[in-house]
Amino acid sequence: MASIECPRLIERPFPVVISAPSGTGKTSVVEKLLASDGRLQRALTATTRPARESEVQGKDYLFMSTEEFQAKQAQGYFAESAQVHGHWYGIPKEQIDNALAKGKWVVLNVDVQGGLTIKQAYANAVLIFLLPPSMAALEERLRGRRTDTEEVILERLKNAQEEMAVAPKYDYVVVNDEIKACATRLMAIICAETSRTPRGLVQPKR
Known about the structure:
Blueprint: E1 15-19, H1 26-36, E2 40-42, E3 46-47, E4 62-63, H2 66-74, E5 78-84, E6 87-92, H3 93-101, E7 105-109, H4 112-121, E8 126-131, H5 135-145, H6 150-164, E9 172-175, H7 179-194
Parallel strand pairs: 1-7, 1-8, 2-7, 3-4, 8-9
Antiparallel strand pairs: 3-6, 5-6
Helix pairs in contact: 1-7
């Protein structure tokens, strides 16, 4: 599929929220999307879960202790925060606001609860929900990772059903059947949203 070239006449930065059930391939799609256009910037998520071997502080996540996270939470530091699978996750407001101030589309990789909270705080945010090709494909992906126990896999499949029930509250739903094609569709959505007249028109540069 050909890549999407987004016109530069109208550039109105806004948050782009991407949510999906665990195992849908959201992280891979977001990475492909970010690499497609320099005007996209990821908002780092703070978390209390331990870093995996390949993860780097300040690049993949903002790793915090539970005490530090909860202290910042009480101070209103996060635009949204939630406890997922026993660990806290949250998006610092400054991650969003600093990107928007630089004229970037800021991409947020959050769960459905966080996505709806972001929409309340940033009315111009665009919410996109990623679906797996099928529940069978989702289960196959979860088992193929070989990182979770049977109990955890069944819990994730149960949570996936609950999360997909919230999808109608999002602005768009996209099936992730192939990473590159899915990222291209997401970029097309962002370009179309940028050109919507309610976001305001900008005169061409002279």
